[in-house]
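Example 3.2
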Amino acid sequence: MNVLLTGARGFVGARIAAAMDVVPSPSLRGARYDDVARIIDAAAPDAVIHTAAMSDIGQCAADPEGSYRANVEIPEYIARAAKGAKLVFFSTDQIYSGADGPGPYGESVEAPANLYARQKLEMERRVLDVDPGAVMLRATWMYDMPVNGLPYRSNFLVNTLMAAARGQRVLVSSRQRRGLTWVREVAENVKKAVYLPGGVYNFGSAADGTMYDAASALRDELGLRLDIRDAADIPDMDDVHDLWMDLAKLNGHGVFFSSTADGLKRCVAAYGLKF
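Structure, written as tokens:
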């Protein structure tokens, strides 16, 4: 299968490119429809995996026009230009950031509470309007180590290690559940996502505890001295919300991830991180 991959130099895209044969797309920053159409025509892909985005919530809020182009307009250009190629686009668990009540949330829930999430939800709708066979992957917060020259960004694992090294406190909430996913599992499972029926899918590890539980388990697994404080105990600090996703739909199509706790254990073991 000939697969065109956008964002091949990004945190997720680089790891997908390392896990499967792809044709990396040139940068789409500032691209117009004709630019996107030329790239797709030249690649003649059987599938397009779209990971490129402006994903920093603060950056999106500071540059709403730029983020709208990156997160809504360019994905729609890809969908319109794809000419029958299977589309697999990355979305976000932030779409659940304003949901009422505790999770886990199924794909029918739509409650974005920030600009980035609103743009991603609009992207899902616009792309599916163009191509109902497209696959939208609502991904969790992903983590990995900065290894083998692959790019990395701020993530739960690296943040925890840096806090321990610097003697800093980790502040997490015992009232928030959110799946955390080793990006290597994402890169492996996206191969299967190409064969999913069109629609929206929660995509990542299940939250088998709270964020406080995850930080505590990682500390113990690593064998670190780490000061973990519960944000729920701090007035005006515990304003976080569940981003806990129900994975039944994805599992029903034979795609499975490790739980958050098991994924962290696998990652720690793979990199020999125990101290």
